[in-house]
Amino acid sequence: MATEGTGAGPSRDLGRGWKVSPSIDMAAGETRTLAEIEGPGAIQQIWCVVSQVPWRDCILRIYWDGQDNPSVECPLGDFFASGWNRYAQISSLAVCVNPARAFNCYWEMPFRERCRVTLENRSPDEMTIYYQINYVLTEVPEDAAYFHAQFRRNNPLPYMEDHTILDGVRGQGTYVGTYMAWGVNNNGWWGEGEIKFFLDGDQEWPTICGTGTEDYFCGAYNFDVGAMDPDQKNAYREFTTPYAGMPQVIRPDGVYDSQTRFGMYRWHITDPIRFETDLKVTIQALGWRGWRSNEERRYLPLQDDIASVAFWYQTLPTAPFPELPSRDDLQVN
User: Fold this and answer.
1) Residue 208 confidence class, pLDDT cut points 50, 70, 90
2) By three-state DSSP, how is residue 138 classified?
3) What is the dihedral angle through the alpha carbons of 82, 84, 87, 88, rounded to the nearest 10 degrees?
4) Interval 53-85: pLDDT, tens
5) Taking Cα atoms as reference points, which of 65, 262, 258, 202 lies closest to residue 145?
6) Contact at 8 Å (CB) between 277 and 172?
7) In the chain, which residues fall in CATH 2.60.120.1390?
8) Are residues 140 and 68 in contact, defined by beta-carbon separation less than 8 angstroms?
9) Fold topology of 145-320
10) Which CATH superfamily is domain 7-144 in?
11) Could you tell me if 75 and 58 are in contact, meaning their C-beta atoms sit under 8 angstroms apart?
């Protein structure tokens, strides 16, 4: 029905009902409401494309049932498993990233009263966004929980400290996924650290403890096909599957060099982690000292650039999130 919009020029000879307003322009520093829906219902799919500005400059927020605090607060790229402001193709059940830089999300997001979706442009430049938010108006089961996503970053991670993926969750719910943008600051292998899920009052010891970073993301042996097969060149190998993947490796010169950057996702769709009262999730950054010599090898706590997004469902109310880092603190150099 639009008569004005970003497509008004190309459609000027066609009249109303043609492609007049396929996108919106957002000024520097502007926050726009992309959707405001009266329920009950559920968001079923989100598609969007952003031009001109880095994805870390776009902050997605989603509010459920009139809450003042968002249940989703995350840079747009990281929400769609694309944390380094660079395109990498992803084929998974929850998130697909398709040519050229098309973000798709298939997490189901039920709400009972209303939902509000906003986007903030933190960039000093104007940006354009094309988007569709597809939803159904329907009854919501009494036991349906609300979708949440929270971003965190350590750059660098303090020495001998774990990276906290999620903390402060109160209520009953289900943890369903992790995305990590991991930049290494040392030479050598970096992924020996354990992921730990502290559930329902766990203190020193977690209920679930992983065996290594690449193991948690459903890989093995450094994601390196040459580690076990002498006929393969020694190198990291990208992969994308329905439930887990490492779709992005940004390489400096050489293998196992400092400043290599990785993007990894793990969706707990068929193996959800359920909690009754509270949840905390951490991961260690752990490499090797003397990594080229087996006789000298010892674990080395790393001080890497680590960003993460936790995805989970829980009952309301949502506890306030930690303050999102500033634009400068989110910058990818």
Assistant:
1) very high
2) coil
3) -60
4) 999 999 999 999 999 999 999 999 999 999 999
5) 65
6) yes
7) 7-144, 145-320
8) no
9) Jelly Rolls (2.60.120)
10) Protein of unknown function DUF2961 (2.60.120.1390)
11) yes
